[in-house]
Amino acid sequence: LDGLRLQVFGGIALNGTVGGLNPRAVELSLRMGGKIVWFPTMSSRAHIEHHTRGPGSGFPTSTLTLMPEEPITVLDGDGKLKPEVHQIIELIREEDAILASGHLSPPEIFAVFEAARAAGVQKLVVQHPDFVIDLSHEEAGRLASMGAYIEHSIGMYARERDDRPIGRLQEWIEVVGADQTTLGSDVGQATSPSPADTFRRVTQLLVEHGTHENDVRKMVAGNPGGLLGLN
Questions:
Q1: 32-67 as b/e, with b when 16 or more CB fall inside 10 Å?
Q2: Tens digit of pLDDT for each residue in 66-105?
Q3: How far apart are CA 226 and CA 231, in angstroms?
Q4: Per-residue pLDDT tens digits for 29-50
């Protein structure tokens, strides 16, 4: 990697494989240089419930036979954030790391982000609002007004599926503006194209369909670079 002059950044996703909402795992990741903490993705209750809706709705799946996921939620029986969530938020604040929503439900995201903002966390990212999470445009706008970036997984648009036209992505970008939008590939699975090919394809489609090149550059480089402290 030194020869490529390429910087690589890591983080941790708080799924069952790392003990779920595990402050010790978060602390270790951040102390080792991790830059981002994703709240549960494939282990979140919202993801697991989405997975039961029909064939293919729970993408991605594992090629390995693993123990069943135990649904993870950030809320206790009274609808309040669990104590370990506050611990995790404080660790993120101390390291000026990125707090990412993972696949939490909208009520969970608002609860976590409001607590994070109150604690002084500066960097918030919401993952693919129209897949699994099912945010409305209005909810995305409210989160962006809190300073959160809305991230879109462009791997969903690389194959120009009928249910994922590039215009749909452009509509979402317009909801909060390019200044509060980031684009990530979210590929790397065995059946997916490479991240580089995905970025080439979707950024080309965006420009061809009228998105300004400066806005595309901002969403794929400027905004993510700012979150990582590179700007």
A1: eebbbbbbbbbbbbbbbebbeeeeeebeeeeeeeee
A2: 788 889 999 999 999 999 999 999 999 999 999 999 999 9
A3: 5
A4: 999 999 999 999 999 999 988 8
What pLDDT does residue 231 have? Answer: 80
**Domain boundaries, position 214:** 11-227
Query: Where do we find the tokens 């990412």?
Result: 100
What is the spatial order of strands in the sheet that 149-153 belongs to?
Answer: 11-13, 36-38, 98-100, 123-126, 149-153, 181-184
Average pLDDT over residues 53-76: 76
Question: Considering only CA atoms, which of 116, 123, 118 is closest in space to residue 229?
Answer: 123
- Domain assignment present for residue 181? The answer is yes
Asked, for residue 179, whether it belongs to a domain, the answer is yes
Tokens of 165: 């036209």
22: CATH: 3.20.20.140
Q: What is the DSSP letter of 149?
A: E
pLDDT number for residue 160: 63
